[in-house]
Amino acid sequence: MEARLNYFGNPFAGKVLRHINSANKVIEESSLPGTIQELVKIRASQINGCGFCTDMHTKDATAAGETSQRLNLVAAWREATVFTEAERAALEIAEQGTRIADAAGGVSDEAWANATKHFDEEQLVALISLVAVINAYNRINVINQQPAGAYKPGMFG
């Protein structure tokens, strides 16, 4: 499989990515735990069928010490006992926020209320923003048919 165009080498795309990357950096520096950030990125990427981002974020999570058991269970988090209640709340927000068209009104009041039990306002802003940013990355890569598998942790910065 080849990408439709060299998005990462295109000067105009570089301008677009700089802004998305800047937003991502602000989120990474927030008080939302890094483990939760990676789980959210992985789950949204799985839902969107973004192999490039799924490859990247599972490798980044592994490099940060995440276990293969937990990574293997992200797609089935509801039935898995290896996630904390906070992680489960974030994964629910990630799923409903990614599946807006399917979620009958977006994120449910129940999912939001559960998330507020685990995260403060800054973390909730970071979580919402993270779902938006990873969905933007997913859409770029899926539309461009960016191939997965070659990512090495840290290769983009």
CATH superfamily (homologous) name? AhpD-like
In terms of per-residue confidence, which ranges show pLDDT below 50 for 5 or more consecutive residues? Answer: none
Number of strands: 0
Number of helices: 7
In terms of structural class, how would the helical and strand content be classed?
mainly alpha
Output the CATH topology: AhpD-like
* Basic shape: globular
Q: What share of residues are in beta strands?
A: under 5%
Pfam families: CMD
GO molecular function, one term: peroxiredoxin activity
Organism: Streptomyces cadmiisoli
Domain Carboxymuconolactone decarboxylase-like: 24-96
Q: Could you describe the 3D structure shown?
A:
The protein has 7 helices and no strands. It is mostly helical. It has one domain: AhpD-like (Up-down Bundle), CATH 1.20.1290. Helix 2 runs parallel beside helix 7. The longest helix is centred in the C-terminal third of the chain and has 24 residues. The protein is globular and about 45 Å long. It starts with 10 loop residues before the first helix and ends in a 13-residue tail after the last helix.
List the helices and strands and how they pair.
Blueprint: H1 11-28, H2 34-48, H3 51-63, H4 68-72, H5 85-98, H6 109-116, H7 121-144
GO molecular function, one term: peroxiredoxin activity
Domain Carboxymuconolactone decarboxylase-like: 24-96
Pfam family, one: CMD
